[in-house]
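Dear Dr. H.,

I hope your travels went smoothly. While you were away I took the liberty of generating a structure for the chain from your last submission, since the lab meeting agenda had it listed for discussion. I wanted you to have the full record in hand beforehand rather than looking at slides cold. The sequence, exactly as received, is reproduced here:
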Amino acid sequence: MNIYLDIDGTLITKDGNPALFLEEFLEYVTTEHNCFWLTTHCNGESEPVIEHLRGKISGEALGYARKIKPTTWTTLKTDGIDFTEDFRWFDDYIMEAEMAVLKERRIIYKFVHVDLKNDPEQLRKMAQSIIE
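The corresponding predicted structure, in token form, is as follows:
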């Protein structure tokens, strides 16, 4: 399965702190799935993502982050998704136009809304349920 990951508000808080259980989550998704960056920090290259994360996440988590492949998209993040493959998209925010694309394809359930502000342990809970 392809996993598409946003960063701010998804893997790190808006304050720049790593989400709880980040290392375990990244270890699992990068080992068991094909992972792609779907973030404003990535436009065809992963190095800007790594630079954005450096100093914000642990060295272990950064090692897993280096395994994640870049995507290219312009206005809508959905332009960076390969719809021919099964996927999950982890993000804290989705634009109405992106939501419309997923609804039109009847795959809105593939979007996983991450809300670290209201549920700081959300990524941890997802990682634990995946790992257990």
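Two observations you may find useful: The radius of gyration is 14 Å. Residues 2-131 form a domain with the Rossmann fold fold (CATH 3.40.50).

With kind regards,
E. W.
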